[in-house]
From TrEMBL:
Name used for this protein in its record: carbonic anhydrase
Domain Alpha-carbonic anhydrase: 30-252
PANTHER family associated with the record: CARBONIC ANHYDRASE (PTHR18952)
Organism: Caenimonas terrae
Enzyme class: lyase
Length: 252
């Protein structure tokens, strides 16, 4: 098993590689997807670097069952996002917004900068077995390369004003990019910031572990038209639920 510092370095390296990715696939990156022979069940066998997808014991996403959570005095997540012009890219697996330095979050173990956020349809996390129409993952990194993700669940309802500037110009083809107007990611969060916390992994290859997950309990809403706009590009980009393997899920 790799030492934590090595794992962190490899996560940082893979994220940099992902940020440099301009199209659906790079010559040195094995093809992967959500269905068929490159689907989630096969990820661990597609490349030696993806082995954690099948051997990892702390994988994500998980189904968060209230009955299995541990009440904890979780500190509030200190959101310190600032308005910034993100770069929205269709990376062949999702729509992702790469962020310039524009603040981040404070957790019990330190400060994390927001590096990117991206979407899944349906949501990857489930709460008491319930899956939501969509979810957004806000990915943060600390000075040592450790990752912390904030997940926001989205259910069908009224039009989401915060997502309007994005969903009006979703880049249609893998590799397409759009520079967004000045936006503050705080607008995507629900008013109630209560959350579940657990240790998991990236939900895409290479499925690296030691990722700190914060799943906000209160969902936000998106309209059917917004969901449709995303699903026209990505009808299904959610990894299946992974075993909990005795992990503690904290709840505030
Ligand atoms: Zn994600």
């Amino acid at each position: 098993m790799a030492r934590p510092s090595r794992v962190r370095r490899s996560i940082a390296c893979c994220l940099l590689a992902a940020a440099a990715l301009t199209g659906a696939a790079r010559a040195d990156q094995p093809q992967w997807g959500y269905q068929g022979r490159h689907g989630a069940q096969a990820w661990g066998d597609l490349a030696p670097g993806f082995a954690t997808c099948k051997t990892g014991r702390h994988q994500a996403p998980i189904d968060i069952r209230d009955a299995d959570t541990t009440k904890a005095a979780l500190p509030e997540i200190r959101f310190g996002y600032m308005p910034a012009r993100g770069r929205m890219v269709n990376n062949g697996h999702t729509i992702q917004v790469n962020m310039p330095p524009a603040g981040g979050i404070g957790l019990a173990d330190g400060e994390y900068q927001l590096t990117q956020y991206h979407f899944h349809a349906p949501s990857e996390e489930r709460i008491n077995g319930r899956r939501y129409a969509m979810g957004v993952h806000l990915v943060h990194r600390d000075a040592q390369g450790k990752l912390a993700v904030v997940a926001v669940l989205m259910r069908l309802g009224k039009e989401n004003q915060a997502l309007k500037p994005l969903f009006a110009r979703l880049p249609a083809r893998p590799g397409d990019k759009v520079t967004l107007p000045l936006l503050n990611p705080i607008a995507m969060l629900p008013p109630d910031r209560g959350y579940y916390r657990f240790t998991g992994s990236l939900t895409t290859p290479p499925c690296s572990e030691e990722v700190s997950w914060q799943v906000l309990k209160q969902p936000v809403e998106i309209s059917a038209a917004q969901l449709h706009a995303f699903r026209r590009l990505y009808p299904m980009n959610a990894r299946p639920i992974q075993p909990r393997n005795g992990r503690t899920i904290e709840s505030d």
